[in-house]
């Protein structure tokens, strides 16, 4: 089977022609939820080392003054701001997840639009529509090539994200279908990102570039910068180079305009790997109900889908970043502190003797009868009692999504050091984006003033 | 067979430890020839549309003032200048060719160094050494994955060039082996570029990015920006994602430090596709000897290696860019004008009625007994005579390399509009680079002043 004929052109037509009126209310609202969740994680990441280092470097090259970096006072050129916001939002992997592909959809797409919203005058509706279309293209390409693409070593958030950023920025610039094809061509020849780099600072380069290069491709296309007619499906194009031998071609266009990938987006209550989330839920529930003293615990048995053990059975971890994918660390910290936030995934917490002692008592068992979004935790006390809790679907899963209030609360927690009266206007501005004539205005609210 | 253990570390050690004294004289001189040839082609490309458009766009985002764009008065930030010089030098594919891989080695590597030489104080020897090492890494990676990598759609100049730029810039920054590995990791996760984009403006994005992103990776690594230990050979690293199923692993390190890829570098006398060059030589020789009047020609038969017909049998072309890969156009223009320079590959020349009339008389025949660097041209006159010339190896091939004087002349021709007395100092400065304490000085000579 071959790729759909004129695929890129089909995408170009779809992006150029789709209007706000065609978006269902639920999709419009999900766009706001995704953006609010993104702003929360950008607050958490905006002072992480990789962000600090790229910011310091880009400041030396940037014209400056054009666009906001969320949570920071420095203003950079639009391309650099897009890079930095994408890196900030994704650096802790605490951002949203398109579960079918494990793409973090918002990080490459929204920052391209944020930067553009400060360069040009655009309304909140234009931003929400462009964002929705960018995520649609990004995740449809991902659906077609998952999971083999990631399996070959491609960091799918970065590679597909660049298309999402180009599509979204192109929509915000009102590109016609032909120019949209050029923008997608510019993205195709700039997509990159390797899984090998995860866990190191270099991960942020490809995520940031996805936003920057997608935005730049659209800006160049607007000026007539030509690309090939078929960058995706062409004989020497994107799919031939980066896709597995048998992509799911129908996933690219089946139901285009009728179904919306944004409705498959999930938001994390905890910064750890998403397969650990039901385990954390169970551990927190057990603590709430039984408050087991750590030294009185003999053993803790975690049972879950085989992928849980495959990806997260890591009793020995030494850094906060590694701990994010350790089920032992996550359970120990949740039981000891009653929380599983960023504070529980610092290097200091990982080396805490109490955490180490409890981690050593935790074992993981595979149970193929348990769904990926479920888990069971059993605490065996030295005195003989056992406490068991089973979670069918984790908080934050599609079956049990975070509520709007929970996403708001996530932002309040991650905007550490901010006063409540300075955070509330950001929350209000995102919920009211579809009534704003100036989509860029809310970004200025994310800049620390005075006491922050 | 697996990739060499600790490959990236081996490269890191090699780059960090190699000194000027270890470079044979012939290699040092070839580095100067490559740079002189590059400056020539950058002059030719610096006003091409894709360069004009990216320059205009980057000016809006750039701090400016840091670094020279060859042939232009605008000064941009170092990253943007690296992008633009790489794009300028390569845009017409008139730059150098590493024949085994078809990599254009200098375009991604030299511009990273040029920009750095204006940011920091470095000597000409440091620049020549860094350049040589960058080309070595770039072409060795290319040797390992050619020709399948290009065949899958990867624009090998861009993908391998990013490693070359990172290695070269890292050397100029005196990175130790560990930081060099981080720089190569930053490059690995930023390499991109699709063959599908050739012939359009978007080609220049990946070529420019190779220089920019390689340079940036090295600058970040200098500041401690960490990457993975094995970005090339790691399980989810570069080779797994971008290389064919069976790379030529031994090409990566066999003879490292003893043989030099730069000695395999070739310089084009004509901007057309390199397989057309022996045909052009033959056509020019026939014109010189017989001066056949165009209207008196009945038929022209070109015979060459099967790849000649496969790649360049294009009697009908409509743009200068297409004409660069048309053997018919090249022969017709060479016979009519006695030249095959950029002026013979303009849209105007392609549509010239005299050229069209002659093109229609030209046929291409495959002859597997002829080497790729050879060709034979036979002109059959209406009056009955036939004139035949056979070329064993084209001008500019490794068997018949351009002389130093011919490369100088290429620069004089391509610096169109420049006075001879302004070009000569550039030529002198490149030949004397190994005696210069300020490698950046010669770049200022490439900026037009006054009457240019």
Main sheet makeup of chain A: 4 strands, mixed
Instruction: Write the element-wise H/E pattern of chain A from the N-terminal end onward.
Output: HHHEEHEHHHHHHHHEHEHHHHHEEEHHH
The helix content of chain A, as a percent range, equals 40-55%
Low-confidence stretches of chain A: none
Distinct helical segment count of chain A: 21
- State the CATH architecture of the largest domain in chain A: Orthogonal Bundle
Using a beta-carbon cutoff below 8 angstroms, give the protein chain pair with the largest interface and the number of residues from each chain. Answer: A-B, 62 and 62 residues
CATH topology of the largest domain in chain A: 2-methylcitrate dehydratase PrpD
- Let me know the number of strands of chain A: 8
Report Rg of chain A: 22 Å
